[in-house]
Design brief:
The chain is an all-alpha fold. Helices cover 78% and strands 2% of the residues. The protein has helices spanning 2-29, 31-47, 54-80, 87-101, 113-136, 141-160, 170-177, 185-203, 205-222, 227-253, 264-275, 286-305, 310-337; strands spanning 165-166, 179-180, 183-184, 255-256.
């Protein structure tokens, strides 16, 4: 019995060291998106009038809040080797639910901060349910999250039954429009979520397990680590981030409706891929996703300042994700050959 236990411990230790060493090697490669970002900012500043201004800088900081929160949630899921397509559905549902629980135009309920907390908890539990369905019923993450997106969109509409509720709580307007040191409150909140994700990723066993699952789930299972629990927690985290993004949407629009998340899924996946997180799992991180978000938002800002057609902007985003995935696939093949 001791021999078996010692053997499992040895395998676990060796695998842990391998993951740490692999991540150290990838840090050099992971600087590429940052270099691209710096070059991009310099090029856009020179070529686009009005880009390198204080007002545009604040505008960019305001724009990154929602995709940054979504990306730090989705990054963990993608590192697992999975995907979460329920982002927009959870956003819309939580946003609609929050609007009905605080001071609003449709009912007399006014739970204030408690209502927000309840909605965020319910949204997070959606992720828990998604994770359970994925790991216990062996449903591919693509299918279970795609279905969950539709379910939550339907529930979101049911919360207000027709016309969306407008929020009448002055605190929401204050938070949405307020700033600290010139930086919007929402951006500060997104930085807090990012910092929490970074600490989890870099300094906890849970963070190491996420990478290990994406690297080689079969080996990790032999070490006695609860892989299923880790996966469920990751999907819960992703749903929590989507719920926070739903709160951001309500704060910005001052009303709750299921469409507040429309378009964010594609933007978030693009940012994560452009940042260098491998879509097959095991490589990447939230810092890379932050850079990816900045790259995507800077490009969007430049195109808006140039008056480029929104449909062309969408096409450019599509090209970005194709290019990013192509590069990571080539990189992955090199690693596999080694």
């Amino acid at each position: 019995m001791n021999t078996v236990t010692n053997g499992a411990s040895t395998v676990a230790e060796e695998f842990k060291l391998k993951i740490i060493e692999e991540r150290k090697k990838n840090r050099i490669i992971n600087t590429a998106p940052f270099i691209i970002f710096v070059i991009l900012v310099i090029a856009v500043s020179v070529c686009v009038d009005g880009f390198f201004t204080y007002n545009n800088f604040i505008s960019i900081l305001y724009q990154i809040a929602t995709p940054l929160v979504l990306s730090v949630g989705l990054t963990f899921v993608i590192i697992l080797g999975s995907i979460d397509l329920s982002v927009e559905g959870v956003m819309g549902f939580v946003g609609s639910f929050i609007a009905m629980l605080v001071m609003n135009s449709k009912n007399s309920i006014n739970l204030g901060l408690l209502g927000v907390a309840i909605a965020l908890c319910v949204g997070s539990l959606v992720g828990t349910l998604t994770g359970v369905l994925h790991v216990k019923l062996k449903i591919p993450s693509f299918m279970v999250t795609f279905g969950m997106a539709s379910v939550m969109t339907g529930f979101g509409v049911l919360t207000y039954m027709g016309r969306p509720a407008s929020i009448r709580d002055p605190a929401f307007e204050y938070i949405a429009q307020g700033s600290l040191l010139g930086i919007p409150y929402l951006t500060w909140f997104s930085f807090v979520i990012f910092a929490a994700a970074f600490v989890i990723q870099e300094y906890t066993a849970f963070g190491r397990h996420i990478f290990a699952i994406g690297e080689n789930e079969a080996v990790l299972r032999t070490t006695g680590i609860n892989v299923d629990k880790t996966k469920i927690l990751v999907f819960t985290w992703s749903a929590f981030c989507s719920s926070i993004a739903g709160l951001f949407g309500v704060l910005r629009l001052n009303r709750g409706e299921v469409t507040i998340g429309t378009g964010y899924l594609f933007t978030t996946i693009t940012a994560v891929a452009v940042g260098g997180t491998a879509l097959w799992g095991g490589k990447g991180g939230v810092l890379q996703s932050l850079v990816g978000v900045l790259i995507v938002v800077v490009i969007q800002s430049a195109m808006i300042l140039q008056g480029i057609n929104p449909y062309v902007q969408s096409a450019v985003q599509g090209i970005l994700i194709i290019a990013a995935v192509s590069l990571t696939v080539v990189r992955g093949r090199k690693i596999i050959i080694k």
